[in-house]
Write a structure and sequence with these properties.
Among the domains are: 61 residues, no CATH class; 29 residues, no CATH class; 38 residues, no CATH class; 102 residues, Immunoglobulin-like (Sandwich), CATH 2.60.40. Helix content is 3%, strand content 34%. The longest helix is centred in the first third of the chain and has 11 residues. The radius of gyration is 61 Å and the shape is flat.
Length: 714
């Protein structure tokens, strides 16, 4: 029997079994075979395995990878599932109930939200859009609408016309119906279409201001015209020639021409709309233009075809540059020509001037140094510096030793005229030195070094023999717990983290030891896992989430709220800005979102209140007495009643604009509480009401006092 089987049987015997595992704290131990197992003579199977441990939660996540779970509360009968945000400690792919359900008989699917279909859709059999009686919702048709034959409208202002079988087809907005040949349609007195039969020969269609009818040709029109002349009204009911309007025939392409104005000086044509020329255009000289020409007014205000430019001229200041224009009326060009010679130059004013002569008469090179000079006679003298101080040959060189004796340091010049060099020589002998004053002096420094004495003795100097005695020190060994000595650092790397202040906290002081490499180390006791193991993150709703070691807890912002970590160990939760400008608003018009934030704000206008009529009435001896306590309506009122059935009427002198903006209330008398008023009728012209007994629901002929109020809202 293997060791593993023995272990399992032993655990079962001791009832060491678990039915529920903790995904955070519970672990499995596995073994990885790293040597061939052997069966020994004792009959015990002992596999040689390297043990490993795995947390139950990690095992679950590994085993359920790529599996899908159902969100808590979902999975209800009839609901179509939809994927949602990954959930759980393993971030399983999660499905939840969608807004789509199917009935128990599998015959109906219901969508409790909006539906967007991005591809072609075919709906067969009966189709219902909307709910019967719904006057709030709307159906929008943004695409092309095809009729039952699959055809488009084909033209504007067409309508869908029904066929006998209930299908619809696109048709003209006035479907063709039977109409007698030659007849026309006209509107009847009932504002419906009726047929107007064709008139007799020679009749014309006239209007009497109300309807159209056929009349004799001579009715209302007299006079004759001339061929090619456009007729005009010459007097009331008479037509004659329009003298300024003549239709003529031109030779150019045999076109007809409309001549406007018989007299160019006296007649005028006014166009108050767009004028479009689709044919030939002649100018005042009856001439057609050529390519590129434009209509230009001359001195007589006549419009003639001409070139784009009538004249181009040019001017220039100064004498240095000449500007000329070529082809001034067709393709004008401006030419620039310089007027000077090679000996001239142009001044800042553009003038051409002859270059002046150099302002000196002769040049000399007298001397080898000094500044150049210009005499009044125009003689420029520049010394010949090449033969002066600028260069030369060293002919003599000397040196002097300052502050010392001549034999301390000696100086000597060699090759003074060719390649001069200076040599420095010391004049002393061994045992001498040059002091701070540069004097050669015999040395009285130490000449002998001894190491007489024991470690710890002071060093001594004997002046007579110039002997320095430094006792041989004993080299320090390795430091121990009782002996001062030498040690080696664990690392030469400089620690960048600042040291912690000295602490007197108990159990925080640790000793320094040598490791096997002779380096100084400090062992800080540390128990793995002794800190935080796990904690639960919980919200107002939803399932609590376990946070274990090494995981981050995210504080996620919602609508209008953002979170951030601007600095170490700092969590910032802030309210997002809206588009609203901070400030005070008058009669503010605001919009508030689902989170209670004001998303828009603007100054509004003060609400217009209602006007009111307040008073009371009483009946005595069959007559009505009315007392008005307040009237801000701007109207006066007539009070009538009581009638045969105790009806009472209040009528304003001007009808109310809208009875839906009218409010009327009545209260029975204060001494007779068994009566109440009942509104009988309300119109824009009056208010009618009755008074009933609460016990018998019968009419009451008299009452002590009836309070009433009428409010008129804008």
């Amino acid at each position: 029997m293997s060791v593993y089987i023995q272990e399992v049987l032993g655990l079962l015997k001791r009832n060491k079994k678990k039915l529920i595992l903790d995904k955070t704290k519970d672990h499995f131990e596995f073994g990885k075979l790293f040597q061939n197992s052997s069966l020994n003579n004792a009959g015990v199977y002992g596999p040689r395995m390297e043990p490993f441990v795995v947390k139950w939660g990690d095992l679950v996540c590994q085993a359920t990878e790529n599996l899908t779970r159902t969100q808590d509360g979902s999975g209800n009968t009839g609901y179509v599932p939809v994927y949602t945000t990954a959930e759980g400690s393993c971030l399983w792919d999660t499905i939840k109930d969608s807004i789509i359900t199917q009935n128990s008989t599998d015959t109906l699917i219901t969508i409790t939200g909006a539906l967007t279909v991005n591809e072609d859709t075919i709906l067969k059999k009966k189709i219902e859009l909307g709910v019967s009686g719904d006057i709030v919702s709307g159906t929008s048709l943004f695409n092309r609408v095809l009729d039952s034959a699959g055809a488009e409208a084909g033209a504007a202002n067409r309508i869908l016309r029904s066929l006998a079988d209930g299908r619809v087809v696109w048709s003209d907005d006035d479907p063709v119906v039977s109409l007698t040949y030659g007849s026309i349609w006209r509107g009847s007195a009932a504002n419906v279409k009726e047929e107007l039969a064709i008139g007799t020969a020679g009749q014309v269609l006239t209007s009497d201001g109300t309807t159209a009818s056929w009349s004799a040709s001579s009715v209302g029109v007299t006079g004759t015209g001339t061929a090619k002349n456009i007729a005009m009204w010459t007097a009331a009911g008479s037509i004659g020639n329009a003298a300024p309007l003549v239709m003529t025939n031109e030779t150019v392409a045999a076109i007809n021409t409309l001549v406007l104005g018989a007299n160019a000086d006296d007649d005028k044509v006014l166009f108050e709309a767009t004028v479009e020329f689709q044919g030939y255009v002649k100018d005042a000289g009856a001439t057609l233009g050529t390519a590129g020409q434009i209509l230009i007014a001359d001195s007589s205000s006549q419009v003639l075809w001409g070139d784009r430019l009538s004249s181009v001229s040019s001017t220039t200041d100064g004498t240095a540059l000449q500007v000329s224009v070529t082809t001034a009326t067709t393709t004008p060009a401006i030419a620039f020509t310089w007027q000077g010679a090679s000996t001239d130059y142009v001044t800042g004013a553009g003038a051409l001037v002859t270059f002046p002569a150099i302002p000196f008469t002769s040049l000399t090179t007298t001397g080898t140094s000094g500044a150049a000079t210009l005499s009044a006679a125009g003689v420029l003298n520049i010394p010949d510096y090449a033969t002066g101080s600028g260069s030369g040959t060293v002919t003599d060189f000397s040196a002097v030793v300052m502050g010392g004796v001549p034999d301390a340091i000696s100086l000597q010049v060699f090759d003074s005229t060719t390649t001069p060099r200076l040599e420095v020589s010391f004049g002393g002998v061994a045992g001498q030195y040059i002091n701070g004053l540069g004097v050669l002096t015999t040395s009285d420094f130490m000449t002998t070094l001894t190491t007489t004495g024991a470690s710890g003795d002071a060093a001594t100097y004997v002046a007579g023999t110039n002997t320095l005695n430094i006792p041989t020190p004993v080299m320090a060994g390795t430091m121990t717990s009782t002996v001062f000595g030498l040690g080696k650092l664990f690392s030469d790397t400089v620690q960048s983290v600042a040291s912690t202040a000295v602490s007197a906290t108990t159990a925080r002081t640790y000793g320094v030891q040598f490791n096997d490499g002779g380096q100084l180390v400090v062992n800080v006791p540390w128990v793995p896992g002794a800190g935080m193991t796990s904690w639960n993150l919980e919200g107002d709703t939803g399932t609590p989430e376990e946070i274990i070691n090494g995981e981050n807890a995210k504080v996620q912002g919602g609508t209008g709220i953002s979170t951030s970590t601007p600095s170490p160990n700092t969590l910032l939760v802030q309210l997002d800005n809206t588009a609203v400008t901070a400030g005070a608003y008058t009669n503010a018009d605001v919009t508030i979102d689902a989170q209670g934030r004001i998303t828009t704000a603007a100054n509004g206008t003060a609400a217009v209140g209602y006007t009111t009529l307040v008073g009371y009435a009483s009946v005595s001896g069959g007559s009505w007495t009315t007392v008005i306590l307040q009237n801000t309506t701007g109207l006066t009122y007539a009070f009538q009643g009581p009638g045969s059935q105790n009806e009472f009427v209040i009528t304003p002198n001007t009808a109310w604009a809208d009875k839906d903006k009218l409010f009327a209330t009545f209260n029975g008398d204060i001494t007779k509480m068994d009566t109440f008023s009942k509104l009988f009728n309300l119109t824009t012209t009056n208010i009618q009401f009755k008074v009933y007994d609460t016990g018998s629901n019968s009419d009451v002929s008299t009452f002590q006092r009836l309070m009433f109020e009428i409010r008129i809202y804008p």
